[in-house]
Write a structure and sequence with these properties.
- The structure is a single chain.
- This protein has 387 residues and is mainly α.
- Among the domains are: 153 residues, no CATH class; 94 residues, no CATH class.
- The protein has 16 helices and 3 strands.
- It has a 3-stranded mixed beta sheet.
- The chain is elongated, with a radius of gyration of 28 Å.
- The N and C termini lie far apart (69 Å).
- About 7% of the residues have low confidence.
- Belongs to the protein prenyltransferase subunit alpha family.
- One of its GO terms (cellular component) is protein farnesyltransferase complex.
- One of its GO terms (molecular function) is protein farnesyltransferase activity.
- Keywords: Prenyltransferase, Repeat, Transferase.
């Protein structure tokens, strides 16, 4: 029986005391509290203070002693927060790695068996095979979760989770994966494998989930939260830029407004301005005429207003924070798009109304204003900087 074979492969996990028992404790905690949203690794000396803060020093001393005797000096779980003692990290990682590899090997062997065995296959054997598959799927998911908590860049563990999820038709496992990857990102916000897995999950549910807009909104909120904790987090912002393709036009406009305040407080972070570039390109793409590269006249008024607001806003920030490269880089993008798209669209609109229009004059006036802005910033003395 597959379950018996699997258990036999786990017998060697009792090295260095009870490392496998410690792993089982961790997995029980993860199963009993699926909403854990934050994990931390603490020195053993910090657990006493944590327990005292949780249970009190006098009234609940007995509760604290009971928790300590049941292994609370290794794990702490309360209010969907999890703490793991650094003292057990190595044996815990070794046990999780061995358990995962054993489960993954057995699962791959089972899934690679021929599926068409003919009509004469005994129904009992079929039921046993299905039971083994379900059992091994649960083992792979359980052990890979423990392993990834300890080593978030294990690509093999992430890929094994993809393999199991791809064989299930329900959307709930994928939603659970979003919660789990958020847990990983809570302590490793720059984990490339975690972000990549998250994008895979979003693509998996994109065509079937009834409320995709809400998922994209929460993804955007997650990136902003993690970007606040981890400066210059290129992987997080790349994820947010990738989400732009799933945004509706109204969501793009909302994101432009929502991310403006964050950008004002982080003018040195080029990632946020690159995100705004992607939002504006999405707007531009949806407004381009089907017969060319020009902005359609129906979309011109709204898009022109958005671009002028961005130019004025960026100009205000440049004057306030002189010398910030991210602001000037963003302005180059805005200026190039204005000359390429909006000047020509304005000329076409004038032609429709029979008005005289000189595109060269419009571009000349625009460039003159830009040069004036540049010169005004160059005349500021070095001792005037107070940033």
């Amino acid at each position: 029986m597959e379950e018996t074979k699997f258990q036999e492969k786990l017998k060697d996990l009792t090295f260095e005391g009870n490392s496998f028992n410690i792993l089982k404790q961790l997995e029980v905690i993860l199963q009993s509290d699926p909403l854990i949203d934050e994990v931390g690794f603490l020195h053993p000396s910090q657990f006493a203070a944590l327990n005292e803060e949780t249970y009190g020093s006098a009234n609940n001393a007995q509760n604290s002693e009971n928790e300590m005797s049941s292994g609370n000096s290794i794990f702490w779980n309360r209010d969907h927060k999890l703490a793991i003692s650094t003292e057990v990290l190595f044996p815990l990682y070794a046990a999780a790695k061995h358990a995962f590899e054993a489960a993954a090997t057995q699962y791959k062997m089972l899934t690679n068996l021929p599926t068409n065995r003919g009509k004469s296959m005994d129904e009992t054997a079929a039921d046993s095979s299905q039971f083994s598959a379900d059992f091994l799927e649960n083992e792979v998911m359980m052990h890979s979760k423990a392993l990834l908590l300890l080593s978030c860049d294990s690509a093999t563990a992430w890929n094994s989770r993809k393999l199991v999820i791809s064989k299930k038709q329900q959307s709930s496992p994928s939603m659970d994966e979003l919660l789990f990857s958020s847990l990983i990102l809570s302590y490793a916000p720059k984990s490339e494998n975690a972000w990549s897995h998250r994008r895979w999950v979003v693509k998996t549910i994109a065509g079937t989930h009834p409320n995709m807009e809400k998922i994209v909104y929460k993804e955007s909120e997650l990136v902003e939260k993690l970007a606040e904790k981890s400066k210059m987090n290129y992987r997080a912002w790349y994820h947010r830029c990738w989400l732009v393709s799933y945004l509706t036009r109204s969501q793009v406009l909302e994101e432009l407004m929502k991310s403006k305040k964050w950008a004002e407080l982080h003018v040195a972070d080029n990632c946020c301005f690159h995100y705004r570039v992607q939002l504006l390109l999405k707007l531009l793409e949806s407004s381009i005429s089907k017969h060319g590269q020009d902005v359609s006249m129906n979309s011109y008024p709204e898009l022109c207003r958005v671009w002028k607001e961005e130019l004025d806003w960026d100009k205000m920030l440049i004057k306030r924070y002189v010398g910030r490269e991210a602001l000037w880089g963003y302005r180059r993008f805005l200026s190039q798009c204005w000359v390429q798209h909006f000047g020509i669209a304005a000329r076409d609109g004038a032609d429709l109304h029979g008005d005289d229009f000189n595109i060269k004059d419009v571009i000349h006036n625009f460039m003159a204003d830009e040069i004036q802005l540049l010169q005004s910033c160059l005349t500021i003395r070095d001792d005037d900087f107070e940033d």
